[in-house]
Amino acid sequence: MSDYRMSTRKKLAIATWKTPKEGNIFGKLTLDLTQTLKYIDYLRETTGEKITITHIVGNAAGKALKEAPDINGRIVFGRYIPHSTADVAFLVSLDEGRDLAKVKICNIDKKTTIEIAKELRARAECVRTGKDSEFEKSKPIIRILPTWLIRPILWTTGFITGAMGFDLKPLGLEKFPFGGCIITSVGMFGIDEGYAPQTPFARVPVYVAVTKIKERVVAHNGEIIIRPEIDLMATIDHRFMDGHQGAVMAKRIRYMVENPWTLDGYESAPFQRDANRHPLTQPDVLAQNHASSC
Questions:
Q1: What is the mean pLDDT of residues 199-208?
Q2: What are phi and psi for residue 197, nearest 5 degrees?
Q3: How wide is the angle at C-alpha 278 spanned by C-alphas 275 and 282, nearest 5°?
Q4: Which domains does the chain have, with CATH numbers?
C-alpha cells in the first residue's frame, strides 16, 4: 500500500466536486498593463508597500461588484438576495502550494489599493504562521474526517454560512466567508491561462484567476508595438449573470485596471505629475480610510 498522505487541500477537492453538470460562463479579459505597472512602481516607491497586480485586480473587482447589485449576492431557496457590502476573498498559498487558505477583505470597494495590500499582507501572514484562530479551528476537522463525510458537512456549513448568513464561530467559520468574489493569483506559478472551478460550498458567483504578465506584440493605432498584458480568467455562475451583464462588468474592470489611479480617487496619473507626493495625502484623493471589519 502506498504511504502517500492526502493534504487537506486534496481531501477538500475530492469531497467538494462531483461530475460537472451546472451552467457556468467562462471568459478571458486581456488587459494592457502599460500604465498599470507604472502606477504599481509609483505606489511601491512612495509607500514602501509591495503592491502587485493582484491588489489592483481585487480593488477593481470589489468596486465592480458594488456597482452590480444583481451579481453581488447569494441564492437562498431559489430567491436571489443581494449582499449589503462588497467583500472579496483572496486565496493564499500554504505549505509551498500543497494547501490553500482564504483571506476575505470586507468593504473592499471603500479601500485604497495600499490599504488592501497592507490588510491582505498582514492577514495572510497570520494564516501562514498559525496565528489566525478561525483558520486553525477548522483545520483539525478536515484532517480527521474521511472525504465521504466531509462532503455533506461542507454542503451544510456552506448553506448555513454562505446562503443563510449565520456565523459558526466554534468551527472557525464566519458568515459569507468568501464574499461575492474569489480571486486566485496563478501567475506566480508561471501559468499563462487557467480557469478556477466553481466551488459549491463557497456559494460565490464570480471567480477570477490572475495569470502571468507577459510582453506581447500587438497592433495599436496602426502600429506594431510591444506592451505588457495580462489575461484575467473569469468563471461565473450563469444564474447570477448573463452575457450582457458580463460584458458591462468586464468593460468596467478593464477601465479601472488600465487606469488604476482612478481606484484610489485620482483624476489623473500621479506618477505623471509629481512622484514626490505621497498618494494618500494628495488633496485630490477622494478615497478615505475605512475600518476593515465587516
A1: 92
A2: -80, 150
A3: 105
A4: 8-15+23-253 (3.30.559.10)
